[in-house]
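cron nightly-structures :: item 1 of 1
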Amino acid sequence: MTTPEITFCDILKNNTTKVIHKLESEIPINIQAGSDLYSQYLHLLDDFFGTCYIWQKQFFDKLGFTQEMLNSINDYWSLVTDRYCMQIEMITGTQKSALQVQENMMQLFDKYAHEALDYYGKMFSRAMEKMNQK
């Protein structure tokens, strides 16, 4: 049984494809792990403030804040929280836009690369035809 012939281009293409497929298969795992870690971090913060709530309630209840004072404090912190949430939305939108720009640039480059390779192939074919005419 003979080994099929292989070209230099076959070697480059096959090995490049193998590495790219391996990288693609690892991406979902890495993204999920990062997402799980981030969720765990947020849950930890929520638990921390939930646990502190009991102790803080005992402390602040003894300070004698009036309901009017508490309403004012609540209004202030609601405003701050809403502004913070708006900033999170703006940052998320900016990140989405930046990723979209990167994706569009990759698509443009891909189109350009294919056009350049097509042109290269045509020029290479012409050069080969001229070499064969000699």
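cron nightly-structures :: done
The chain has two domains: 1-64, 66-134.
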